[in-house]
Amino acid sequence: MTDHALLLVNLGSPASTSVPDVRRYLNQFLMDPYVVDLPWPARRLLVSLILAKRPAESAHAYASIWWEEGSPLIVLSRRLQEAMRPYWSHGPVELAMRYGEPSIESVLLRLADQGVKRVTFAPLYPQFADSTVTTAVELARKVIRERSLPLKMDVLAPFYNQPEYLQALVESAKPYLDKPFDHLLMSFHGLPERHLHKSDPTGTHCLKGADCCQKATGTVLDHCYRAQCIKTAEGFAHTAGLRPDQWSVSFQSRLGRAKWIEPYTEARLDELAAQGVKRLLVMCPAFVADCIETLEEIGMRGQEQFLAAGGQELILVPCLNEHPVWVKALTMLCERVPQSA
Ligand SMILES: C=CC1=C(C)c2cc3[nH]c(cc4nc(cc5[nH]c(cc1n2)c(C)c5CCC(=O)O)C(CCC(=O)O)=C4C)c(C)c3C=C
Ligand SMILES: [Fe+2]
Ligand SMILES: [Fe+2]
């Protein structure tokens, strides 16, 4: 059978580092109601305010990490796509981005045109969030429905607790863990606290008490991004054989004035330096491919902050990218996705 495609989906990047391209990208991204979850008039107003200054700042940050071939996120996702082709025997392996190009719509139209009948849709996010997973899945379903595409679609669920994923993370981090270090910080992308309350199916669990995420199970855990990040970190530490005092978790990439989930990475970098940590490893397990959030926010600004606070070295552990163990792990996870009738 060669009519069953695998579609890898990531977030997307601006088309270039020019301010107009970055503004276009940020506008598409932030006007997504799953990302800035306000009613349209308030969202439009807030995003317009953000767009007054942010595109120039972000364009500068993108320029500092951009590669000759383009955005690291896109280039690395393409390399993953290429590496997976020999392993996926059921049909084409394609790549789409939720924002920017190649769009989910253009890729689904092309696949249907090629005679593909079934798509395994793989959002490249280990942990669930409405602002990443739901928005991509809903958009794909809308395209299939509105364009009447004869495609069956099955979705890869968040894989934060899958042994293959955790093992791949450990394998890829091994060269860094094998050298002496004082502490490992697992810095995940943050989320506004409001998003966590909204996705809590009980309406009463999330952010009630300091250890709510440690206690999350069942449908609460299935929907709680913060709890899934903590499970990822615990699973990683367990698989790597780390002691509890060797690692901690934080959340980065805060935007705007609302309260985001804590502890904040910025605060942890100062605390760790003050505690005498000199050689700090930072890994970012919410991202499977290196991007502006890892390379610039942690690798450049985070490093500068940690050194200014008295640390000696911040070593950024690369994301899974196209690591061969990850390529095989992701193939296995995608092979296991149940097929709808
Ligand atoms: C309200 C704003 C944002 C939410 C919510 C959010 C959630 C979220 N994002 C990722 C993964 C990525 N985000 C990336 C960049 C990025 N994120 C935001 C804002 C929110 N993200 C902005 C404005 C940007 C653009 C860069 C900037 O101006 O700072 C990226 C990298 C893209 C790239 O081109 O490299 C990724 C990946 C997750 C996993 C997540 C929720 C859990
Ligand atoms: Fe983001
Ligand atoms: Fe929670």
TrEMBL record:
<comment type="pathway">
    <text>Porphyrin-containing compound metabolism; protoheme biosynthesis; protoheme from protoporphyrin-IX: step 1/1.</text>
</comment>
<keyword id="KW-0456">Lyase</keyword>
<keyword id="KW-0350">Heme biosynthesis</keyword>
<dbReference type="GO" id="GO:0046872">
    <property type="term" value="F:metal ion binding"/>
</dbReference>
<dbReference type="GO" id="GO:0005737">
    <property type="term" value="C:cytoplasm"/>
</dbReference>
<dbReference type="GO" id="GO:0006783">
    <property type="term" value="P:heme biosynthetic process"/>
</dbReference>
<comment type="similarity">
    <text>Belongs to the ferrochelatase family.</text>
</comment>
<dbReference type="InterPro" id="IPR001015">
    <property type="entry name" value="Ferrochelatase"/>
</dbReference>
<keyword id="KW-0408">Iron</keyword>
<feature type="binding site">
    <location>
        <position position="189"/>
    </location>
    <ligand>
        <name>Fe(2+)</name>
    </ligand>
</feature>
<dbReference type="Pfam" id="PF00762">
    <property type="entry name" value="Ferrochelatase"/>
</dbReference>
<comment type="function">
    <text>Catalyzes the ferrous insertion into protoporphyrin IX.</text>
</comment>
<dbReference type="InterPro" id="IPR033659">
    <property type="entry name" value="Ferrochelatase_N"/>
</dbReference>
<protein>
    <recommendedName>
        <fullName>Ferrochelatase</fullName>
        <ecNumber>4.98.1.1</ecNumber>
    </recommendedName>
</protein>
<keyword id="KW-0479">Metal-binding</keyword>
<feature type="binding site">
    <location>
        <position position="293"/>
    </location>
    <ligand>
        <name>Fe(2+)</name>
    </ligand>
</feature>
<keyword id="KW-0627">Porphyrin biosynthesis</keyword>
<keyword id="KW-0963">Cytoplasm</keyword>
<dbReference type="InterPro" id="IPR033644">
    <property type="entry name" value="Ferrochelatase_C"/>
</dbReference>
<dbReference type="GO" id="GO:0004325">
    <property type="term" value="F:ferrochelatase activity"/>
</dbReference>
